[in-house]
Design brief:
four-stranded antiparallel beta sheet; alpha+beta; 4 strands; 1 helix
């Protein structure tokens, strides 16, 4: 009787194939995780920009005088605010109030194409004509 050696282990080729499959799976997971983090950061920046724009609109006529013009400033965390106040003139509109169009654009960051991301809000404000 001859005894044959048992082949209970893995061959080198099997181990290499298993490592290659694991590496591909981990690479895909890392890409998904990275995309999720970038999306969360962009979402956070959009929320901050929208809050700044809403705050700026709320301040017009209270803390910021309702005077036609362009006002530009920036925050410490890299957001740029552009406030525009202009008389609103609709054809045929007769009223005893003055109407102003107020627009706020909050922008931040530079993308690869050179454009910055931005949030733009606008509203109308009424002032009693004297």
């Amino acid at each position: 009787m001859r005894h044959r050696p048992s082949r209970n282990g893995f061959t080198l080729v099997e181990v290499l194939v298993a490592f290659a499959i694991a590496a591909l799976g981990l690479a895909a997971l890392m890409q998904v995780f990275g995309t999720g983090l970038r999306s969360a950061a962009v979402s956070s920046a959009f929320a901050r920009a929208a809050m700044l724009a809403e705050s700026e609109l709320a301040a017009v006529g209270v803390a910021t005088p309702l005077i036609p013009g362009e006002y530009i400033d920036s925050t410490e965390d890299g957001f740029r605010r552009h406030l525009s106040i202009a008389p609103y003139e609709e054809a045929g509109l007769q009223s005893d109030v003055q109407i102003y169009r107020v627009q706020v654009v909050v922008s931040w960051g530079e993308r690869d194409d050179g454009d910055a991301r931005a949030v733009s809000l606008q509203t109308l404000r009424l002032v009693r004509a004297d």
